[in-house]
Write a structure and sequence with these properties.
The protein is 24% helix and 29% strand. It is an alpha+beta fold. The protein starts with a strand and ends with a strand.
Length: 799
């Protein structure tokens, strides 16, 4: 958005504040200034000159030789404009000046043998318009020798500001002034209105029918009679040209002025062109053709919201008006439209038509529903000042369900916790008050405010905290040299996440940050995924339910650029709906997840080693390392699943009792095909929120084992459909407390074992912390366990 500092000064006193300060404060408060343009600098060397004499060029029929003075010296100038004449005041570019259009420097030269010591400029050469039919002739009141920029009010600095999508309230000069007023502790000077009006929705001059209250919850209209359409006054043209707009006529210019002043788009209809003196707001039922103000015929789609008269469409709601009702030089009576259109409706229409306008840009982000009528009256007053006419005091305002302003509370301790230090309560109160939040409750604990209707982005406590921080200033947040952390059994969340990051980085992993949006076809658990209403592309249609798909997109992109050997991790939020349809925010659940991924070679071929590919056991080992914590080691148990599913060829799961912490394994080739990956990829995804909520115990010291362990190895031949988990469960259920660990160390499959048979080899570890075990004691238990497994699982002890 383009903002003129001269224009801005109409609403806020900026005396004593430099342009640099304004730029810095706007940027740090969230409205980043992309560019600063000094308009006067572009016109350096151009002054108001007086043409004293004009003579025909002796060597060219279409050129003149002029005498031009700047009040101190007279110059010879060759000019080719047909309208140059003596006693004109003109824009005179002296030697050394740079002409804005073309960026060429004026030099002393000879043109067809005659000396030329400057240039008399046309409107388009100064980038003030499109006219090149002749030179720009200035008003008689222009002061000879004055800089041209001062003469036309172009001694201005213009800011190009990047407004974030949530800050629709900043898309105007008053919106920017409001932020600056809060930052610098000054007051906003709002335009005042002297016109009194009364609402009469049964106006005899115009009937308005709103058939779509959902997409147009408010429609205001003001009628002005007996206007004169003509060129705008100089002050209005200067305001618009300063921000890059081309003046058209006084009516259109006035509506554009108010748009950039207040942020509310307006449209002026020729009242006589509205059939049956009627306006109907409705959706078009079928496809139709419509010619917009830019003289282009557009194909309208069904369900597009339109403004119609008694017989035909006259405007695309919130986007652009039509040629068939535009204000012309013969217009005498006009209707000023000021409405609130549903942002989603305007966005869909503008996107379908591939048509973006100043109006749609603002409506798509949300305008002030409570400001429509006041804005229309502001425009009406300006129009009667510059075009004459009379405002009809009976205005129309279709507003069946008035907007209810939200009430939001913010707790002082919460602000301190978020930003890391305390801000004085009175400062917080003043910031919110200066941003025009109405204080309705205030005590030592919290502040409760009523949110103004122009701040529809404010919904929760954290939104108010952001407002306080951005106005207070990030640069004012103190540097903390020393942070004391009390020893506690409670695991600090940030510290916990950082400890996991540190472990994974130490193992050789690199952290990635992925987009939270994913496409339909790549979504896991589609039934509980959350659809985006207005996706920017087909690749970002749903919120991710798992970190696996976005991680695989990262893997795929890396492989395509020959980065084949990868160890990646990410910590991020995932989202699911409780039911298949989301109606309110409470229907959405989210949690923080960790994912680790590996693919390719874990070590490259060297003189001392061979290539080695990542495998399933590397994954389980690294998953253990990532989650290992002295408090939790004894709680987390692994279970393995050899059966394939749509995601994994085989997998393992980490559990605490019956609660699943996470699952991982070797991804199936069919699933990897969706991401154009043709090599083995191993992933493990863990729910960090569950891990953080676990109650932890104090550390306990255990002495080193004083007595020797007894190790027994054996292998069983079993049916292939008997799982590892079943065998381990049978072993443990048929052993005493002397058995401390069961470890699978070999899996073997061969036709030599028999049809549909496999061999599983285990190592059993026995010990007693109070004594040395006797061989016969262990042998008795060991062989008893072997017999139980053989009997229950029909297993054969392998020799």
């Amino acid at each position: 958005m383009i903002v003129s500092l001269n224009w801005l000064k109409d609403y806020i006193d900026l005396d004593g504040i430099s342009t640099e300060e304004i730029v810095e404060k706007l940027t740090t408060s969230g409205s980043e200034v992309d560019e600063v343009i000094d308009k006067a600098k572009d016109l350096n060397g151009i002054v108001v000159g007086l043409v004293e004499e004009v003579k025909k060029h002796p060597n060219a029929d279409r050129l003149s030789v002029c005498k031009v003075t700047d009040g101190e010296k007279t110059y010879d100038v060759v000019c080719g404009a047909p309208n140059v004449a003596a006693n004109q005041k003109v824009a005179f570019a002296k030697i050394g000046a740079i002409i804005p259009n073309g960026k060429f420097e004026i030099k002393k030269s000879k043109i067809r043998g005659e000396l030329s010591e400057g240039m008399i400029c046309a409107e388009d050469e100064l980038e003030l318009g499109d006219d090149h039919d002749g030179i720009l002739v200035l008003d008689e009141g222009a002061e000879i020798g004055q800089t041209f920029a001062d003469s036309i009010g172009m001694n201005d600095v213009v800011l190009d500001i990047a407004i974030t999508p949530n800050r629709a309230d900043s898309l105007s000069h008053i919106g920017i002034a409001r932020d600056l007023a809060a930052i610098f502790g000054r007051k906003v000077k709002y335009p005042t209105s002297e016109n009194k009006y009364k609402i009469n929705n049964n106006n005899e001059l115009l009937q308005i029918v709103n058939e779509d209250i959902e997409n147009c919850p408010r429609y205001s209209a003001v009628i002005i009679k007996e206007i004169e359409v003509k060129e705008s006054p100089q002050w209005l043209k200067e305001k618009l040209t300063a921000i890059g707009l081309r003046p058209i006529n006084n009516i259109v210019d006035a509506t554009n002025f108010v748009l950039h002043e207040i942020g509310q788009p307006l449209h002026a209809f020729d009242l006589e062109e509205l059939a049956d003196a009627k306006i109907v707001i409705k959706q078009m039922g079928d496809k139709s053709k419509f010619v917009t103000l830019d003289s282009k015929e557009r194909s309208m789609l069904p369900n597009s919201l339109m403004i119609c008269d008694g017989k035909k469409p006259v405007a695309i709601a919130g986007v652009m008006g039509g040629e068939n009702s535009e204000v012309s030089n013969s217009t005498k009576n006009i209707v000023i439209e000021s409405a609130f259109f549903d942002p989603a409706s305007v966005r869909k229409t503008a996107k379908k038509l591939n048509l973006s306008t100043d109006a749609s840009y603002r409506f798509e982000r949300g305008t002030d529903i409570n400001g429509t009528l006041n804005t229309a009256m502001r425009a009406a007053e300006i129009i009667t000042d510059i075009a004459g006419g009379t405002i009809v005091d009976e205005v129309i305002d279709i507003y069946p369900k008035p907007f209810e302003q939200k009430e939001v509370s913010v707790r002082f301790f919460r602000i301190a916790k978020i930003i890391g230090f305390e801000i004085e309560h009175y400062i917080i109160k003043d910031i919110l008050k200066n941003l025009e939040f109405e204080i309705i409750e205030h005590d030592l604990i919290h502040i409760k405010v009523r949110v103004p209707s122009f701040r529809q982005d404010i919904e929760r406590e954290i939104d108010l905290i952001e407002e306080v921080i951005r106005i207070f200033g990030f640069e004012n947040i103190p540097n903390v040299e020393k942070i004391s952390i009390p020893l506690s059994s409670k695991i600090d969340e940030t510290k916990f996440e950082d400890s996991i990051r540190n472990k994974l980085v130490a193992l050789g992993y690199s952290e990635v940050v992925s987009n939270s949006l994913i496409s339909d076809e790549k979504t896991i658990d589609y039934a509980h995924s959350i659809k985006v209403l207005n996706p920017q592309s087909n690749e970002m249609t749903r919120l991710r339910t798992s970190l696996i798909p976005p991680m695989l997109l990262n893997v795929s992109r890396n492989i395509k650029v020959k980065e084949d050997n990868l160890m990646l991790f990410e910590i991020g939020q995932v989202f699911k709906s409780k039911d298949e349809k989301v109606k309110v925010y409470d229907d959405i659940v989210e949690h923080q997840s960790l994912i680790i991924t590996m693919t390719g070679k874990k070590n490259l071929k060297n003189w001392f080693s061979e290539d080695g590919l990542f495998n399933f056991y590397d994954l389980t080992s690294n998953a253990d390392s990532a989650t290992t914590n002295n408090y939790l080691d004894s709680k987390i148990k692994d279970s393995y699943n050899e059966e394939a599913n749509e995601i994994f060829d085989f997998s393992f799961e980490k559990k605490i009792k019956n609660t699943s912490l996470g699952i991982g394994g070797k991804l199936s080739s069919e699933f990897l095909n969706k991401f154009e990956i043709e090599k083995d990829v191993f992933v493990f995804e863990l729910n960090l929120d569950i891990l953080k909520k676990l109650k932890v115990k104090k550390k306990e010291f255990h002495s080193i084992l004083k007595y020797p362990k007894v190790i027994r190895d054996f292998a069983f031949i079993l049916d292939k459909d008997i799982s590892y988990k079943t065998v381990v469960g049978t072993i443990k259920n048929n052993s005493s407390n002397l058995l401390k660990n069961v470890k699978l160390f070999d899996i073997f499959e061969s036709d030599t074992l028999g049809k549909d048979k496999k061999s599983l080899a285990f190592q059993l570890e026995y010990f007693d912390e109070t004594k040395t075990l006797r061989e016969e004691e262990i042998d008795k238990e060991f062989w008893s366990t072997i017999e139980k497994v053989k009997t229950k699982l029909k297993a054969e002890l392998r020799g």
